[in-house]
Design goal:
Elements (H helix, E strand, L loop, with lengths): L3 H14 L4 H20 L2 H8 L3 H15 L1
Helix pairs in contact: 1-2, 2-4, 3-4
C-alpha cells in the first residue's frame, strides 16, 4: 500500500514522464485527495466542512474527473 506522499509522488512521476500538463496533474492529485477525504469523512458535506468549501465545489471537482474518464 502506498502512503499518500508516496502515491502522489508516483502520480507526479508518471504524469511528468507521460508529458501531461500541470493542470491535468494537479486535477488528478486534487481528485485523489478528495477521494481519500471522502473515505475518511464519509460524506461530501463533511469533506466540504473539513476543507472549508461549499459542498457543491467538492461534488463538481469529483464529477469533473469522472466525466473526463468516460
Amino acid at each position: 500500500r502506498h502512503t499518500t506522499k508516496g502515491h502522489i509522488n508516483s502520480i507526479v512521476s508518471d504524469k511528468i514522464n507521460a508529458g501531461k500538463s500541470l493542470k491535468s496533474i494537479m486535477a488528478e492529485i486534487e481528485h485523489k485527495i478528495l477521494q481519500q477525504a471522502l473515505k475518511e469523512h464519509g460524506s461530501m458535506t463533511r469533506v466540504a466542512k473539513f476543507f472549508q468549501v461549499d459542498r457543491t465545489t467538492i461534488s463538481r471537482k469529483l464529477s469533473s474527473i469522472e466525466e473526463k474518464k468516460s
